[in-house]
Amino acid sequence: MHHGTGSKLAAFATLGLLAGVTTAAAQDVVGTWERDTGASRVRFTKCGEAICGSLSWLKETNGPAKVGQRIFYDMKPNGANKWSGSAFNPEDGKTYSGTMTLSGSTLTTAGCVMGGLICRSVKWNRMN
């Protein structure tokens, strides 16, 4: 009985390793991230070949941002641990050219206007 449990665990461990190897690098950001201010959370999912992100939780629900609103669009791999696409800012209703950079369990998103003259970056911490 005891031996059977051990071999089952070994099989699961092996499966886990294989799953980790076959997962494409672009999926590293998939999951839920919390803004460093604790004000919001974004859930990143695969949208075809790209990554998109929607607000999954908001501390302040009376503002212009709404849960379920998509704020990151068409984020495509652009170098190691980097993605480029579009970012929508509910606070001003504008869409910016956006980038995401992953470093360990921290994701930095940046949105730029006017050809990159004015950029704002936000840090996110991985929830799951």
Your description of this structure?
The chain has one helix spanning 2-22, and strands spanning 31-35, 40-47, 50-58, 70-77, 82-89, 94-103, 106-113, 118-126. The chain is α+β, with helices and mostly antiparallel strands. The chain has one domain: Lipocalin. The chain has an 8-stranded antiparallel β-barrel with strand order 1-2-3-4-5-6-7-8. The longest helix has 21 residues, at 2-22. The model is unreliable at 17-26 (pLDDT under 50).
Question: What are the defining features of this structure?
Answer:
DUF2147, 8-stranded antiparallel barrel, globular, alpha+beta, 128 residues, signal, Lipocalin
Low-confidence stretches: 17-26
SSE order: HEEEEEEEE
CATH architecture: Beta Barrel
Largest sheet: spatial strand order: 1-2-3-4-5-6-7-8
CATH names the topology as Lipocalin
Largest sheet: 8 strands, antiparallel, barrel
Q: State the separation between the terminal residues, measured CA to CA.
A: 34 Å
CATH class assignment: Mainly Beta
Structural class: alpha+beta
Proportion of residues in helical segments = 10-25%
Beta-strand percentage range: over 45%
Radius of gyration: 18 Å
The mean pLDDT is 84
Number of helices: 1
Number of strands: 8
Signal peptide: 1-26
Pfam families: DUF2147 (PF09917)
Keywords: Signal
Domain DUF2147: 31-126
